[in-house]
Amino acid sequence: MLDPAKKHPMVMPDGTAVPQVVYLRAVIDHPRIEVGEFSYYHNFETLEDYAGYLAPYLFPLSLDRLIIGKFVQIAHGVRFITSSANHAMGGFSTYPFDNFTMNAETTGADIVAMFEKSGNRGDTVVGNDVWIGLGATIMPGVTIGDGAIIGSHAVVATDVAPYTVVAGNPARPVRKRFDDEVTAALLAIRWWEWPTAKIEKHINVITGGDIDALKHCSRESC
User: Which chain regions cross the lipid bilayer (predicted)?
Assistant: First the structure.
């Protein structure tokens, strides 16, 4: 049932694949992007360049990376604004003159120096089982913890704790999904690292609300 090699993992009862839903690992080949298995993206239209749409400022020579965990759910219109989009702000003008003076003598090292001048805020990291709602924007260097939920059209400029719901511009915590004890148990169990067959067997428990049942299933003998 779960096949990480599929390009279009959502299939209707009549066998028709939904072309607007893709597993990102199957459609992204970018040196600065890492995507875990079963993480999907839905766009209302099919795209030619998924990496270019999701992270339009991430280039092969960029200093930072976009790292997306397993079972991440990304809705239409989500964008990752990475550090390569930054302008240098230490001087009187933020205008990127270097961008408009490149020529045949411009080297890869020169381009890297441009990125260094504008600053690198580090990798953007999305944990596992994260849901990012429609039209959300994730700013450079942000880490989103496992199990977090990002509200529609949120602008996430700071780190998000695991299993926390955030919303707004700038995004602020709305609530914790679970109490600290349950959150700690979920982070220890890490069901997304189970073998696929085990995940399939226990889908109802994974999507349920009984932490004791999930703990039981996490045992080797389950």
Answer: none
Whether residues 135 and 150 share a domain: the answer is yes
Q: Residue 145 above 80 pLDDT?
A: yes
pLDDT number for residue 52: 96
Give the Cα separation of 127 and 144 in Å (integer): 6
Give the number of other CB atoms < 10 A from CB of residue 116: 11
Residue 118 confidence (pLDDT): 85
8, 30, 87, 153: the active-site residue: 87
Summarised one tens digit per residue, pLDDT across range 77-106 is: 999 999 999 998 989 999 999 889 999 999
Q: What is the DSSP string of 58-96?
A: --TT-S--EEE-TT-EE-TT-EE--GGG----SSS----
Q: What is the DSSP letter of 132?
A: E
If asked whether residues 130 and 214 sit together in one domain, one would say: no
The span from the CA of 40 to the CA of 38, in Å, is 6
**Annotated catalytic residue 8:** no
Do 222 and 173 lie in one domain? The reply is no
Cα separation of 63 and 119, whole Å? 9
